[in-house]
Amino acid sequence: MTAARVDAGLGEDVPIAVVTANRVVACSHAAREHGVQRGLKRREAQSRCPELTVLGRDEAIEARTFEPVVAALEAIAPGVEITRPGLAAIGVRGPTRYFGGETGVLHALSRGVHDIAALQIGGQRGDVLIGIADGSFAAEQAARRGVIVEPGGSPDFLAELPVETLDPAGTSTLVDLLTRLGIRTLGAFAALPPRDVLARFGPDGAWAHRQAGGVDERPVSGRRPPVEFTVTLDLEPAVDRVDTVAFSARGVAEQFVLDLAAHGLACTCLELQALSENGEETVRRWRHSGVLTAVDVLDRVRWQLEGWLSGRAAPRGACDPRMSPSGGVSRLRLVPIETVPTGAHQRALWGGAGDDDERAARALSRVQTLLGHGSVLMPVLEGGRDPGQRTRLVSWGDEPLPLRSPEQPWPGQLPAPAPSVLLDPPQPAQVLDADRRPVVVTDRGAVPAPPALFAMGGETPTAIASWAGPWPVDERWWSPESARRAVRCQVVDVRGRAFLVSGIMTPQPHWQVDAIYD
Questions:
Q1: What distance in Å separates the CA atoms of residue 300 and residue 205, rounded to the nearest whole number?
Q2: Confidence of residue 452 (pLDDT cuts 50, 70, 90)
Q3: Residue ranges with strand state E in 151-280
């Protein structure tokens, strides 16, 4: 709830409901005061509170906002179990002995989350509810009501709650069936014999029966804190020689690889950060066709520092990796960006093409280090209608992901075969009919006089042996600034040369050669 309010920039006194699949999944305290609750349909929630602000759910924002809360809880009681972003449980047996009772634990938890910036909205506090009871389900209900249930009192506490508490979203067929059978409270459901509940409602019903009766024998399953694989090397005093830094980094490179291997991982993309004693910094990501070994890591340390330390002099504070720092290297940090399970990349048993690829990758990486990150480019297949839109160049080492999926349908896409040579920029062309007049295309895409002669640039027109098209393209017609109307044709002259020509309609086509079929 706090995450939605922060993202929307709303205050604590504004009634807010987060809706998914037309049902309320979370609501603010101000909304609950108007009768809004989880599980209500959107229309009913708005009828109860006409001023209700309805927001869509963003689980990424919820997780990001809730993470500081989890970190604060882990500082008080290790072993936090996260049910979903916004709901967590801890075992209080150990903290109770340390803080002198459950009330002391409650106060410690309140203080732990009090100063978290993620929960502050315009100087006001977000909703943080804490409760203590036997079992996770009973503790959640206690937190929603802000109470501490005495040990052994969970069955009596849950008995008067409505049976809809088992499924606030209102989508459970079990809750609907219990309601139609006249079972309105959790106590009435818990009073049924467990064997009969299992026979009638199955395993899900038996689990809900135990929750309703306050019987939760499952201990809190706390999350494991994330393992930190980043390694840092501090150099004191600062070093301005590449070979000295590389020699000093041998130990951290081996530690970096061994720490990942101990968890069954290997690194395929590494971020190398180097900081000078005067604050200049160079940051670069290195991708590997296989997995990075300690030798590979050291090679990349050496390459990056060679390009940085041997570059032209840079003003203090500059961060251009091609400029040399004004002081020596004081810190080196290795950060794994992408990892794969150990064994996912295996080298060829007897060498072969894998060695050739490795040598080429090492050469390209070194050229990129010396000339800059954008000096080595590789093509990526994109989605699009014409050949120029279907390729994009990305820097070597960057993730080769398309911005437009080539798997999606592209109406008006150029049919196969694709041309082998793209002209950038396109070359002017002449497409003439038998009377040596420019070929025209009507608004309906018809060609009154078929093409007979073709010339690219200043060439002498050559007879056309065959042609295909035209294929009209009307792109972004809804935007006058970027709208484009054109026609495309494939032309083969008597010399056997094949071209892809296009005509920009203004209003008759101005022909140009976009690509050549080799």
A1: 58
A2: confident
A3: 231-239, 265-276
